[in-house]
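Q: Could you fold this chain for me?
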Amino acid sequence: MIIDTHVHFGPALQHFSDDIGPLIRLHKVDDLLRTMDDAGIEISVICPPRWIGGEFFDPNYEQANEAIAGACKAHPDRLIGFGRVNPNWGAKAVKELRRCLGEYELKGFKLDPEWDSFFATNKGLVHPLMDLAVEYKVPVMFYSGYYPAEPALLIHLARAYSSHPIIMGHMGGRLTSDAVIAAQKAPNLILETSGNLYSFSGVIKGLGAERFIFGSGCPFEFPKVQLEKLRRTPHVSAVERIQILSGNAAALFGLKIRPS
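A: Sure. Below is the predicted structure, expressed as structure tokens.
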């Protein structure tokens, strides 16, 4: 079984330009399911992509969250939904996130410090959202990469919520070494593998396979390529690959997985 923990889905995908657009057409849920089947992925965690502006207006991701909820309701056996909000909207972000976790029954949410221009260290903006994660007992994913989304900026937040799982999306991107340091300092940080450009066999051995979950970054990355990257990573055992491809995510979301 393969669980893809980082897939973008929703109406904003139709409004990206050709220069920065998705590599795979993923406008409708049938497109998503077909892409999953083609890569051998049984379950995907779907979240809204970045809102890029223009004619489609959704700065706090309300329309995107509704689309995520609809797709998951239609295919509960294949899809797990993550909501998304922009913390800069303050009380409106908290209200929308409560709708995601309460009314929509989504299983987590994603925050993007780089695109939505905030710091994970901003307690006034981020802690009210984290408090909802604790209340609803769901994990939180943070996009990680360059300023202001550096992995090191998650250390204080992770320590403040030390018993709560926080996913570092893209495991820092090109800042992999920083992601490793952050994970060493905060044991509740989970590293998600998509968009990482380096061989990370040493990283897996150093932290332990239980600290990683597979993600493709689809449709901005090809799922088959991301899977092959993991499969070709040397010095990783079959048991460790199973952990990363499905076991850790299944435990995170309370899923029962059948033996392969």
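A (continued): The longest strand covers residues 3-8.
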